[in-house]
Amino acid sequence: RNERKGDGIMTVKQKIFLFVDILILVVLFLISSTDYIWKERKVDVSNISVIVDIPQDSINLNLREGAKKAAQAYHADMHFLNLHDYEAQQVDMQTLVQRELDAGCEGIVLQCGSGRVTEEILENIPVGVPVVLWDTEAESPRVKANVSFDREAIARLLVEKVAEARDKGQSVTLVSHKDRSDQMQNMHDLLEEMFPQAGIMVRRVELADYAEANALVNGLAAQGGNMVVSCDPQALEAMAAVCENEGCTLPLYGMGWSGMIREQLEKENITGVAVIDAYGAGYFSVQKLTMILTGEDQNEEERKFQAVWVTGENMYDRSREAILFPFA
């Protein structure tokens, strides 16, 4: 009997079909595994809230952008709320926080302009909900991390820059709104103490309304021998606008960052400002909170971010772009 050559041996075509079948099975397995991993990740997403009470300026935008970037990187479902968005509804900070807790918030990054209000809020937050404070001072077992900026270093920077540009006999006027935050008032307390130590006479003016900036700037400019420092960004903007509109010459220094401050720096109506790394602070705050929630980091921590000195000449330097325009 003649046997056909090749019986019991796979042909090349059969091997190819077998390889394709195995490849399809492997791909299907990987797809199902990836889908399973994705579903597991969705279950582990942290539900967090970032709640702040700061003006709608570039500091707010940079903080939000940093927080958003960290939320994406660390798989957090983040709600970002600014009290200034709810002014028309007359909602207070306590109400915003309670709304988020009622909605199932697992952790909070909190910035509040009042230490007293912060303490009241912390008392009503369940012990199991960790809190990261940003630029806010309060003590509570719920607080797992404090993120802020070095106020003393910024005050020294402002005094140094004013002293470098000051003519003999010039004095400094500290200007702010009377209802600004505890943090801003603390900055002016530091400056009120440091300027005399540098041999510079200082006085303090609090505005009942930002419209009062017009009379103040015109009076100081006409009097002569004055320099103005403000850690209240809105007061700084108001005074710079008066200088532009009235043609006044008055050295303005301060702290803060916004579109108007950038514009007035370019026009040289503001000499220079200290700007904090709000993007870095926002990123670190959310990163820290999500790692606490996942159990990756249970260490209490205090992190202080530095500030850069910004003028019309240096604001577009590479060394400052990451802080001033982080999402540009």
Write a structural description.
The chain is elongated and about 105 Å long. Helix 7 packs across helix 8 (233-246). The chain has helices at residues 12-43, 58-73, 93-102, 115-123, 151-165, 182-197, 213-223, 233-246, 259-266, 278-293, 318-324; strands at 46-52, 76-82, 107-110, 131-134, 143-149, 171-177, 202-207, 226-230, 252-255, 272-276, 301-305, 307-310. The strands form two sheets. The protein has a six-stranded parallel beta sheet with strand order 2-1-3-4-5-11, sandwiched between helices. The protein has a six-stranded mixed beta sheet with strand order 7-6-8-9-10-12, with helices on both faces. The protein contains eleven helices and twelve strands. It is an alpha/beta fold and 328 residues long.
Short overview:
The protein has 328 residues and is an alpha/beta fold. 47% of the residues lie in helices and 20% in strands.
Map the helices and strands.
Elements (H helix, E strand, L loop, with lengths): L11 H32 L2 E7 L5 H16 L2 E7 L10 H10 L4 E4 L4 H9 L7 E4 L8 E7 L1 H15 L5 E7 L4 H16 L4 E6 L5 H11 L2 E5 L2 H14 L5 E4 L3 H8 L5 E5 L1 H16 L7 E5 L1 E4 L7 H7 L4
Parallel strand pairs: 1-2, 1-3, 3-4, 4-5, 5-11, 6-7, 6-8, 8-9, 9-10
Antiparallel strand pairs: 10-12
Features:
single chain, six-stranded mixed beta sheet, 12 strands, 328 residues, disordered N terminus, six-stranded parallel beta sheet, alpha/beta, elongated
| Outline | elongated
Low-confidence stretches: 1-6, 36-43
Q: Give a count of the beta strands, DSSP E runs of length 2 or more.
A: 12
How much of the residues is beta strand, in percent? 15-25%
Pairing-aware structural class of the strands and helices?
A: alpha/beta
Order of helices and strands: HEHEHEHEEHEHEHEHEHEHEEH
Radius of gyration: 28 Å
